[in-house]
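re: ur question from earlier - yeah i can do the single chain one, its not a big deal. heres the input i used so u can compare w yours
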Amino acid sequence: MSIFDCHLHFFSRDFFAALVRQKNPAAEVEQVLGDLAQRARIEIPSSDIHAHLKRWLAELDRHGVERAVTFASLPEEAAAVAEATQHSGNRLIGFCMANPAMEGAAHRVHKLAHECGYRGVMLFPALHHFHVSDASLLPFFEAVAQCRLHVLAHFGILQVKLRDALGLPRVYDSRFANPLDLQSVANRYPQINFIIPHFGCGFFRETLMLGMQCENVYVDTSSSNNWMVTQPYPLSLAEVFQKTRAVFGIERILFGTDSGVFPRGWRKDILEEQKRAMATAGLSPAEMEMVLAGNALRLFGA
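and the output i got, formated as tokens:
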């Protein structure tokens, strides 16, 4: 069965260094990264982008993953991830974090698409404190439409463990995190495909409501989906798949793991858990193939 992971963080050294500088611009980056690696029991990659790319491609090969969407999880990582995707033999598709409320955001979209080869942008409304429905952001979405980019918009619960490990403040504001905020934008730009990760990450009902009304909205299945414990009623992952299929149809569900750090590497445990859940939910082998690879191949091209 083919595997196309639609949610993978590249996490180059530039990403880790940028987080350190967010906390303290004058910090001794190497020392802080060394301490972080020891405390969090993770590997900090070298500055050699091609070596880190080789590590990721070998990891994907080991688990039989044919292709993946990989993220530049901070703007400072954009150049590194662009270089990696360009040398990946078409196995990695790049999305880059963007803040549409920043000055020059629309111009940056064109640069990401035309100069860096990015296929999509990532939005974090709760982190950057904007409503995606705000009229002032329309130039940004116009640029996204012109460049034919996809949009991954993280709504719901937002926790970044690496930020916590470095002592960065928790600036997330869930007032901006409701997926229904996307409805007017998705309807205004039917040519843009919007992806909601983690089944809405706690805003499951709202994600279903959005998906019922906007045919250009997809969900990805990534992460442990521990948001299920926040629901006011018992909910299993199999039931999540059942309800999502009933509303979105099988064609708008994209498999993802949320893999990112070594030595843990690619999250095979997520794959196995989701395969069991899909089987329990009654998905046929053909439907599982669509979730695990077919839908992504149709969306991003073979």
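Residues 4-11+48-300 form a domain with the TIM Barrel fold (CATH 3.20.20.140). not sure if urs matches, ping me
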